[in-house]
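TICKET: design request
STATUS: open
ATTACHED STRUCTURE:
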């Protein structure tokens, strides 16, 4: 059988917010994650020179390079590939930008070398790319970039889609970028120095996820807000909050939010905050002279092929 491959291809994948459970998901606890309507698009061309080229440069330590190399190796593709990355997802602030870029890069390479998006292969390839960002990714960021929607992710059990009553969420960007790997290491150090307490924190987090699912069912925003603050206190205890995060949370609460917490790796980056729709404008206004604010849609579509 002759397979149809492409000279050029494009695909896109969404960013994400972790609503509850970041970091603890690395230790196989459940987390709730949602795709957002900010996307990364990656265009790819079959290229005369071998290897992976981002624009006209070979960037060895780039997640896209690693992800595409994996695709080329597994599919036995002989030519090179050139990529163009166009991302609307702010980088290094917890919104899953590197995972989306890795996923879209791998998917476009899969289109060029196989003529279709092999999702299983793309998932493995993107995880290789994520290992550049930190050695031990749970896989939550790449999984949501592929699947889209909202769901519960557990490292050992994968992704389970759920319906949630929230359509939008307010994201506040502290503007401070940081490295996911450093934050994951910080938690590992905490866990090694405080073994018993860390075990308690992990089981508290697991209970919390069950309470969150109940609060979603009864549409109890006030309870969800309180649970966000509990989640934030656990994240603070393991050392991944920051002065900027605490300041942004305080501003959001003072302006009438039910709750707020960091999202992603922390140490800066973004917080999410939960409020009644009629309060969102007031909260945005009172924060926007200090931090960037985005009102984003949740449960966005996952990985998809794009026209080129
Ligand atoms: C980063 O978006 C989420 C972390 O839990 C790391 C991971 O799960 O791989 C901090």
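STATUS: resolved
RESOLUTION: sequence designed for all positions
ATTACHED SEQUENCE:
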């Amino acid at each position: 059988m002759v397979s149809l491959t492409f000279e050029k291809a494009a695909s896109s994948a969404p960013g994400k917010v972790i609503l509850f459970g970041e970091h603890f998901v690395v230790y196989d606890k459940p987390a709730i994650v949602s795709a957002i309507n900010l996307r990364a698009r990656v265009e790819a061309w079959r290229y005369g020179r071998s290897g992976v080229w981002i624009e006209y440069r070979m960037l060895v330590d780039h997640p896209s390079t690693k992800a595409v190399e994996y695709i080329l190796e597994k599919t036995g593709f002989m030519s090179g590939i050139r990529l163009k990355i166009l991302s609307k997802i702010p980088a290094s602030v917890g919104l899953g930008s590197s995972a989306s870029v890795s996923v879209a890069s791998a998917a476009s390479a899969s289109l060029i070398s196989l003529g279709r998006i092999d999702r299983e292969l793309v998932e493995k390839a993107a995880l290789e790319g994520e290992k550049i960002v930190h050695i031990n990714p749970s896989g939550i960021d790449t999984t949501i970039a592929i699947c889209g929607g909202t769901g519960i992710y557990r490292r050992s059990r994968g992704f389970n889609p759920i319906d949630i009553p929230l359509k939008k969420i307010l994201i506040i960007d502290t503007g401070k970028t940081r490295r996911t790997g450093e934050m994951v290491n910080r938690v590992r150090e905490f866990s090694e120095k405080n073994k018993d307490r860390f075990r308690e924190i992990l089981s508290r987090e697991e209970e919390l996820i069950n309470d969150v699912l109940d609060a979603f069912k009864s549409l109890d925003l006030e309870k969800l807000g309180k649970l966000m603050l509990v989640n934030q206190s656990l994240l603070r205890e393991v050392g991944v909050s920051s002065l900027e995060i605490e300041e942004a949370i305080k501003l959001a609460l003072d302006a009438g939010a039910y709750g707020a917490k960091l999202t992603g790796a922390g140490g800066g980056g973004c917080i999410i905050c939960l409020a009644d729709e009629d309060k969102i404008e007031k909260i945005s206004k009172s924060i926007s002279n200090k931090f960037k604010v985005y009102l984003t849609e949740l449960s966005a579509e996952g990985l998809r092929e794009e026209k080129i």
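CLOSING REMARK: Residues 29 and 203 are 8 Å apart (CA to CA). The pocket of (R)-mevalonate is lined by residues 18, 22-23, 25-26, 96, 137-138, 140-141, 180, 184, 264-265 (CB under 6 Å).
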